[in-house]
Each structure stands twice: as C-alpha cells, then as structure tokens.
Specification:
Blueprint: E1 7-11, H1 22-30, E2 33-36, H2 43-49, E3 54-57, H3 63-75, E4 80-84, H4 95-104, E5 108-111, H5 116-123, E6 137-141, H6 154-157, E7 163-167, H7 173-181, E8 190-195, E9 203-208, H8 212-219, E10 225-229, H9 235-238
Parallel strand pairs: 1-4, 1-5, 2-3, 2-4, 6-7
Antiparallel strand pairs: 7-10, 8-9, 8-10
The structure holds S-adenosyl-L-homocysteine.
The site of S-adenosyl-L-homocysteine (SAH) has 24 residues, from helix 5 and strand 10.
Length: 261
C-alpha cells in the first residue's frame, strides 16, 4: 500500500530506543537516507535501527538544506526518513517541510511517536487525568523566540486549572511560575520537572509552584525538560480524591452491568 511513498516523517519517541513505534522502527530499518533532529534524537536509535543508512543531522541545517537532502534522496529512488523527537506533530516544525514537499510533488506519510509528556507521566508513574481533579491536559509552552498567540498566553490558559505539560520553557521557569500563579494555581499547586524522560540520565524534580523553580535551578536543569503542573501530581502525597467510575462495581457501562446496592 505504501510502496509508492518514499518519504516518512517518523516520531522517534522521547529517547529510549524501545519507545519508537513498531512501524517507525520498521520504516527506519528500511531507510537509506535519514535526516534526524540531532539535538534530541537518541543516537542509539540510529545505531539500533538504521546502522547503514546515510545520516544527516539537521541540527545545523536550514529548512532548505533538509528539503534538499530529502528531495535528492527521492530523485535517486531511495527511501528517506525524516526523524523527529517525540511526536512530530508537536513543536516539530514539520508543517513547513510538508508544504515544501507538496510544492515539489513529493508524497510522504507521518508516523506518530510517543511525546515527551507521555514519557514524563510514565517516569512520574502518574495519571494525568483524574476524576474530580482534572479531566483536561494542556500541552503548551511559554513564548520564547517563537511567539505564542495572545489568547494562549500562559497566564490566560492558567485560569482553567487543568493538568499542564509545558514544553520548551524550563530555561524560563521563573516566568512560567509567575504566569501560572496569576491563574487558578497557587503556591501549593504540585509541580514536577522531568529532565530527559526515558533516557539513562533521566532526572525528576518534584515540588510545588512555591519551590520548583529554586529546586530546578539548584539541579542545574535549563533544557531538555518538561514542566508538569496540576493537582493530579499531589495524589501520591494527598491520596486519591475519587476513583474512576470505569472499574466501579456499581457502575453500568457498555461492557459491564453494575451491581446495584
Ligand atoms: N516533538 C517533541 C517536542 C519537541 S520540542 C515531543 O513530542 O516530545 C523540544 C522540547 O520537548 C524540549 O524543550 C522539552 O521541553 C521537551 N522534551 C523532548 N524530549 C524530552 C524528554 N525526553 N524529556 C523531557 N522533555 C523532553
């Protein structure tokens, strides 16, 4: 079915080479040219799945150069993979590449990946959606060199009080905390920072909005980390507020009839 597609954008996952999808690993294994995001993709993924492919680290390349390598490979009839960290749909800058490929008439597919927020939740052994605490997860970032639309300013979405996974912002954690405190969060709101989730040197810093910035500064973490915030991160300390109805014996749903009384 995909025989005519020679370009795949693949999510490499958060770091651990076993956290790429089966499909992504297979296509990577078949690739002859791989352009990978060198700043965050684990080199072990390349040595494990595509040891003989021609490798291009996109960290120092421009978008035009990336497209040049992809298009060059396609012209030579080679199978090409563009490898991004986590899930390529999140902060991956893949749209502009796909627009260029469209313009050149080159077809492609996207293979999703495990985003770092999922890896951070796993590292924390934490469900992100808990009954009566939060049923919403916001993936966002603080404005940096890349601006954030005014309506999505952290201080504005902080009014919702949902669980948040904040990407690309740990270097500005003081401003993150400041903006969150203007919303529904308080100095007591639990927060965690997960550095290089799923890598061998993964680190977890836990605290509250009152002390997380100081702890992160003391740990010297200023990149490659996610800031996780919300009441759900307090349940190991404070206990579960409510249990899910899904496995509640008195609750009837499509797959089970509940016991009454
Ligand atoms: N597409 C990626 C995100 C790329 S933006 C994804 O889905 O995860 C890069 C940011 O992602 C980093 O600044 C950091 O906030 C986060 N990140 C990527 N890998 C990470 C990891 N293993 N652990 C913690 N944060 C990570």
């Amino acid at each position: 079915m995909s025989s005519e597609i020679n370009v795949h954008f693949i999510g490499a996952g958060p770091g651990d080479p076993e956290l790429i999808t089966v499909k992504g690993a297979r296509l990577l294994g078949e690739a002859e040219v791989v352009v990978f995001a060198g700043s965050l993709v684990n080199r072990a993924i390349l040595t494990t799945y595509c040891p003989t492919a021609a490798l291009h680290d996109s960290a120092a390349m421009t978008m035009e150069e990336v497209i040049g390598v992809i298009a060059g490979g396609v012209t030579e009839g080679k199978r090409v993979v563009r490898l991004h960290t986590g899930d390529p749909a999140l902060y991956g800058a893949i749209q502009e590449q796909m627009v260029e490929l469209d313009r050149l008439g080159i077809s492609y597919r996207v293979i999703p990946g495990v985003t770092s927020a999922s890896a951070a939740a796993a590292a924390l052994r934490q469900e992100l959606t808990l009954p009566e605490l939060s049923q919403t997860l916001i993936l966002t970032r603080l404005a940096g060199k890349t601006p954030v639309p005014e309506g999505e300013r952290l201080s504005k979405i902080a009014r919702i009080g949902a669980t948040m996974a904040i990407y690309l912002s740990v270097g500005m954690i003081d401003s993150v905390v400041e903006e969150l405190l203007t919303g529904a969060y308080t100095p007591e709101t639990p927060a965690a920072v997960v550095y290089r989730a799923s890598w061998p040197d993964e680190r977890i810093i836990e605290g509250t909005l009152a002390n997380i910035a100081g702890k992160v500064a003391a740990a010297g973490i200023d990149r490659q980390a996610l800031i996780m915030v919300g009441e759900v991160f307090g349940v190991r300390r404070n206990g579960l507020k409510a249990r899910s109805l899904l496995y509640d014996g008195t609750f009837t749903h499509g797959f089970r009839t509940g016991i009454v009384g």
